[in-house]
Design brief:
This protein is an all-alpha fold. The chain has helices spanning 6-39, 50-84.
């Protein structure tokens, strides 16, 4: 990043932030679709049945806990690599 001037750094940061938002929205959309398809199957009412609500809550919770676990492992691996001096991509 040091090789970029101030304008280029701002542009790069803007692109990076847009990509992060797009990636987040993709993951979020997949989560919603997965939980909806797994849990919602009664279309005779405007509202979710209590079993459907419970299923959706468990589904979202399960995905959230899995994402937290992956993030934790990623952080641990990254810290171990940094400590050993093995930085990926260099």
């Amino acid at each position: 990043m040091e090789a970029l001037n101030a304008n280029e750094q701002r542009e790069f940061q803007n692109l990076y932030e847009r990509k992060q938002l797009k990636d987040f929205m993709t993951v979020y959309s997949r989560l919603i679709q997965n939980c909806f398809e797994s849990c919602v199957n009664d279309f005779t009412s405007k509202t979710l049945a209590s079993r459907e609500q419970g299923c959706v809550m468990r589904c979202v919770d399960k995905h959230q806990k899995a994402a937290e676990r992956v993030q934790l492992r990623f952080t641990e691996q990254n810290a171990a690599l940094m400590q050993s001096g093995q930085i990926p991509g260099q």
